[in-house]
Amino acid sequence: MRALLLAGLLLAAPTSVLAQAADLPRTPWGTPDLSGYWEYRSTTPLERPESLAGKEVLTPAEEAEYLAGRHAAIRRERDLQLNADWWQPGGLTDGRTSLIVDPPDGRLPPRTPAGRERARTLGIASRLRSADGPEDRERYERCIMGRTVPLLAVSPNRIAQIFQTPGYVAILHEQNSDLRIIPLDGRPRLPARIRQWQGSSRGRWEGDTLVVETAGFNGEWTIRGTGPNARYVERFRLAAADALHYEFTAHDPASFTGPWTVMFPITRAVGPVYENACHEGNYSLPLILSGARAEERRRP
Known about the structure:
alpha+beta
């Protein structure tokens, strides 16, 4: 009897999966239809805090206790920024204590010396150094590009719009109005000598999963130490008509001793995506630089 029951479950499982796949929206040319508005955010940190070592998921009571301190820390950071008023505290993603799912400890692999130096001098860390001109400030402050390659869920809500054609997928982000155009026609990546802020993205369909590989960065920014030769492999898969399963793996032997993978959900949103006029009325950089010059004049 038990053997018959097991056989029945095994036979039913593929039918259930096929039925679910058949219910997903598809384009006229047959691929899953990812087009539309999407949003994502999470208060789960990228890395698992050392104080939560060994705890992949928190109970509701543990989560409430942890979020009290986490929200307070984020609020202190936001109060130092111009966008403090619109920050909306959120919860953990599925109660998880890290967005990193591999390595299993939820921590970044050890950095190489070059990776440690990049983590110390690029990205958010660059805000701690003196600035003689706009070029010394972080890319996000300069409105060059948002933090959108690869996607990374943080506490403020992020919204994007996806467009599809048979040969391309385009992702328009509200953050800094970033636009990624991803060819799907098998063309080679740009030559290694051509380096770009967002790198060079190429996509392909593996079954119903959109796989996007991006490389060829200019090295002017970093994610916790990644360098210009990093390669990100992103996977977008419709889990339901209103939900995307998203993950990316970072490959960067020059910066880390191994690859690392991040995973979080993306949900349908209501548009539109508004223009992000980042420099409109933005006096931050002139004030930062003029303040630095004033401090220099006061020095003996």
